[in-house]
């Protein structure tokens, strides 16, 4: 079976979507599926031009030119890259879904679409997005043989368009990514990993953490990732404003090895995000022995309910930091909580999730 994955950004770009596709393809190759990827030829964050084709850890990557906004990149050359596919698996709701649906009468390839949160990650242009979703997206998805929702939130949303085609396969996670053995020590360090994008609400996280340090100055927060939506200057200014440069540290463009070291030296994975399709980085952190501290959005609540790990926090509520600190200080089993996080994260391992996608492909081709 030859599966071509179509996604707007891929390695060496870093992010939840990129990691998802990378890990899914690696698991599929291990299962004997002929899987490859088609993606765009420039990185959004740096504008760096990338090679037209290469192999990345055994994965065949073909890159195509595009123009227009990074939020809706226009890349009609995708049509010539999928000729040999048995299945075309499109990731995220963007140009590729619309264009491959519009040209379906030409390529005639069975399409599977993974939702990845759709395009509702922020409240920007909310009404316009709703109108687009209920018209253009609805029409485009009629050409997809299966719509794979990455979370219960996505399943509820996309089932309003086509309940018969929509099914839930929650994201797989590379549970070995940050694992370095059974935790033997505890630190008062929290870690955020991800893009510095508007929906991550890192500004809210920083303001919450200010109160933590006021009551316990031994706590540290590391914010690791890529500047996105040009937020770094504002976030650094916020840290300086509160005189917390010795407690809050930014780590930009961290390598996998550097991230692994940060995980090993932390005890908590934290996110004040206002929207996540799933929460992959939280699970990756848990698999590395970090205890999650999460905002009260639906996807994080699902993780908390499924695993029983960590805390759900209203980061914008006055006094919530002190309330969390009081709960933390009552615990004398932090190392055990770290070990439980590792164990509970295994339910999201890639071999199990990849097999569910294989079943989808087989059903589509039957």
Automatic annotation (TrEMBL):
The keyword Mitochondrion does not apply. Keywords: Transferase. It holds the Pfam family Glyco_transf_4. SUPFAM superfamilies: UDP-Glycosyltransferase/glycogen phosphorylase. GO terms for molecular function: glycosyltransferase activity. CDD domains: GT4_PimA-like. This is Glycosyltransferase family 4 protein. It comes from Vibrio agarilyticus.
């Amino acid at each position: 079976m030859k599966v071509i994955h179509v996604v707007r950004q891929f390695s060496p770009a870093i992010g939840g979507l990129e990691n998802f596709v990378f890990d899914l393809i690696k698991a599929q190759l291990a299962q004997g599926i002929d899987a490859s990827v088609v993606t765009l030829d420039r990185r959004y964050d740096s504008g760096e031009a990338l090679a037209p084709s290469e192999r990345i850890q055994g994965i065949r990557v073909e890159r195509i030119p595009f123009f227009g906004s990074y939020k809706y990149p226009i890349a009609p050359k995708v049509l010539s890259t999928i000729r040999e596919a048995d299945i075309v698996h499109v990731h995220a709701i963007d140009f590729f879904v619309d264009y491959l649906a519009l040209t379906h009468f030409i390529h005639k390839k069975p399409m599977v679409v993974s939702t990845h949160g759709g395009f509702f990650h922020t409240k920007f242009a909310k009404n316009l997005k709703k109108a687009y979703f209920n018209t253009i997206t609805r029409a485009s998805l009629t050409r997809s043989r299966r719509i794979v929702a990455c979370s219960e939130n996505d399943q509820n949303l996309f089932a309003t368009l086509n309940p018969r085609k929509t099914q839930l396969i929650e994201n797989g996670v590379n549970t070995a990514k940050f694992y370095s053995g059974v935790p033997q020590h505890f630190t008062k360090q929290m870690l955020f990993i991800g893009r510095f994008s508007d929906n991550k609400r890192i500004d809210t996280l920083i303001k919450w953490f200010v109160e933590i340090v006021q009551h316990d100055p031994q706590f540290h927060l590391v914010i690791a990732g890529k500047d996105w939506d040009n937020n770094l200057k504002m976030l650094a200014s916020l840290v300086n404003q509160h005189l917390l440069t010795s407690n809050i540290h930014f780590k930009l463009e961290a390598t996998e090895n550097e991230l692994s070291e940060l995980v090993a030296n932390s005890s908590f994975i934290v996110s004040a995000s206002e929207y996540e399709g799933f929460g992959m980085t939280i699970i990756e952190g848990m698999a590395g022995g970090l205890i999650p501290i999460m905002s009260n959005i639906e996807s994080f609540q699902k993780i908390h309910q499924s695993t029983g790990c960590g805390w759900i926090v209203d980061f914008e509520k006055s006094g919530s930091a002190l309330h969390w600190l009081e709960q933390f200080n009552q615990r004398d089993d932090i190392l055990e909580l770290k070990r439980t996080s590792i164990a509970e994260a295994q339910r999201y391992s890639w071999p199990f999730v990849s097999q569910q996608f294989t079943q989808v492909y087989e059903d589509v081709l039957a």
